[in-house]
Specification:
Helix content: 25-40%
Largest sheet: 6 strands, mixed
CATH architecture: 3-Layer(aba) Sandwich
Order of helices and strands: EEHEHEHEHEH
Distance between the termini: 22 Å
CATH class: Alpha Beta
Number of helices: 5
CATH superfamily: Response regulator
Radius of gyration: 14 Å
Number of strands: 6
Length: 140
């Protein structure tokens, strides 16, 4: 089931992150990590839902699993990069495809960064912070 988690600890504009993963446990972990600070977190378990949320809400950052049930992460990434409203959104692949060559292919396909599962919580947090600093967009 897809859902949105809105963290509203503050009244000022927060960063908006879309986490895409078909595994409930992975989404729960990301939710626990990323809602500790003042952020809006959107989640999706399918590629189609991720595309709809990205086009409608234009998040500041997308954490994208590659092995999804309907569209592959490569397909989602390709569609994001082709659409004028989503082409600029940084995408971090968070994937079980752990070989160096896999990450290289993801970066060549248009991902901004790649994190292999299982990952250290600190590595995910650092990557998120790095890419959020590079964007000035706000969540719709």
């Amino acid at each position: 089931m897809d859902f949105c988690h809105l963290n509203s600890q503050s009244t000022h504009t927060t960063s908006c992150i879309l986490a895409v993963d078909d595994n409930d446990d992975n989404l729960l972990l990301v939710t626990q990590i990323l809602t500790r600070s003042d952020r809006t977190l959107l989640t999706a378990q399918t590629g189609r839902t991720a595309l709809a949320l990205a086009q409608t809400l234009q998040p500041n950052l997308i954490l994208l699993d590659i092995l999804l049930p309907d569209l592959s992460g490569f397909d989602v990434l390709h569609r994001l990069r082709q659409h004028v409203t989503t082409a600029h959104i940084p995408v971090i692949a968070v994937t079980a495809l752990a070989r160096v060559d896999d990450c290289r292919k993801l970066l060549q396909a248009g991902c901004n960064d790649c994190i292999s599962k299982p990952y250290l919580l600190e590595d995910l947090e650092l990557a998120v912070e790095r890419w959020l600093k590079q964007t000035t967009l706000s969540c719709a």
